[in-house]
Amino acid sequence: MEIIDGLAFYNAFPLAELEVGQHLYWHIGNLKVHGQVFITSWVVIAILIIASIAATRNIQRIPSGLQNFMEYALEFLRDLAKNQIGEKEYRPWVPFVGTLFLFIFVANWSGALVPWKLIELPEGELAAPTSDINTTVAFALLTSLAYFYAGLSKKGLGYFAGYAQPTPILLPFKVLEDFTKPLSLSFRLFGNILADELVVAVLVLLVPLFVPLPVMALGLFTSAIQALIFATLAAAYIGEAMEDHH
């Protein structure tokens, strides 16, 4: 009887609500898009643009403050691309790899730091863009297009000859690998970010004060690692596509 009374009280005065898979849809002609993903993605883009403008507004020969931080980030991304792609060919790919890393990094951290769920929508709820499978699949497909373009631009149609090396028996496996690469990238990022948000949300529901704080700190660390993994693998795939086979 006490359990029934407790359930009746909770239904009448819900303390928290956790939903998965609810979306705010925008209809643009015959196209239906996830509105909340666009909203949070625009916020992430705005943060990156504002930070870039602030860091380059008054460039000094001896950098300090935000300019120093942004130059450090640029050097870090250059080293990442150079180590994975190669010293001779990495420069044109720094903007692509850097954009992937910075967007995913800020998007992941926004899910850990910004209380998106406090902003009420007509339906669905706001969350980090990378906690939506559509965003991560889009990044993975862009990566696939990038490494195909890299291979074809360097080797021409001879790029496809690498599928039969060192033996034609490996041809179906290498074709299958091109499909599993973007899938593994997208599901790894999506699964980790969504799981982190759900764990924090459940802990806030159960123990709303101190317990979620260590988990949130761990989420910030894993979010940064996931951005690094995605950018590193993307650069590695590009480097592999341009690698000479002997």
UniProtKB/TrEMBL annotation:
<keyword id="KW-0472">Membrane</keyword>
<keyword id="KW-0378">Hydrolase</keyword>
<dbReference type="GO" id="GO:0016787">
    <property type="term" value="F:hydrolase activity"/>
</dbReference>
<feature type="transmembrane region" description="Helical">
    <location>
        <begin position="217"/>
        <end position="238"/>
    </location>
</feature>
<feature type="transmembrane region" description="Helical">
    <location>
        <begin position="33"/>
        <end position="55"/>
    </location>
</feature>
<dbReference type="GO" id="GO:0046933">
    <property type="term" value="F:proton-transporting ATP synthase activity, rotational mechanism"/>
</dbReference>
<keyword id="KW-0138">CF(0)</keyword>
<keyword id="KW-0375">Hydrogen ion transport</keyword>
<protein>
    <recommendedName>
        <fullName>ATP synthase subunit a</fullName>
    </recommendedName>
</protein>
<dbReference type="InterPro" id="IPR000568">
    <property type="entry name" value="ATP_synth_F0_asu"/>
</dbReference>
<dbReference type="InterPro" id="IPR045082">
    <property type="entry name" value="ATP_syn_F0_a_bact/chloroplast"/>
</dbReference>
<keyword id="KW-0812">Transmembrane</keyword>
<keyword id="KW-0813">Transport</keyword>
<dbReference type="GO" id="GO:0045259">
    <property type="term" value="C:proton-transporting ATP synthase complex"/>
</dbReference>
<comment type="similarity">
    <text>Belongs to the ATPase A chain family.</text>
</comment>
<feature type="transmembrane region" description="Helical">
    <location>
        <begin position="133"/>
        <end position="150"/>
    </location>
</feature>
<feature type="transmembrane region" description="Helical">
    <location>
        <begin position="189"/>
        <end position="211"/>
    </location>
</feature>
<keyword id="KW-1133">Transmembrane helix</keyword>
<dbReference type="InterPro" id="IPR023011">
    <property type="entry name" value="ATP_synth_F0_asu_AS"/>
</dbReference>
<keyword id="KW-0406">Ion transport</keyword>
<dbReference type="InterPro" id="IPR035908">
    <property type="entry name" value="F0_ATP_A_sf"/>
</dbReference>
<keyword id="KW-0793">Thylakoid</keyword>
<feature type="transmembrane region" description="Helical">
    <location>
        <begin position="93"/>
        <end position="113"/>
    </location>
</feature>
<dbReference type="Pfam" id="PF00119">
    <property type="entry name" value="ATP-synt_A"/>
</dbReference>
<keyword id="KW-0066">ATP synthesis</keyword>
<dbReference type="GO" id="GO:0031676">
    <property type="term" value="C:plasma membrane-derived thylakoid membrane"/>
</dbReference>
<comment type="function">
    <text>Key component of the proton channel; it plays a direct role in the translocation of protons across the membrane.</text>
</comment>
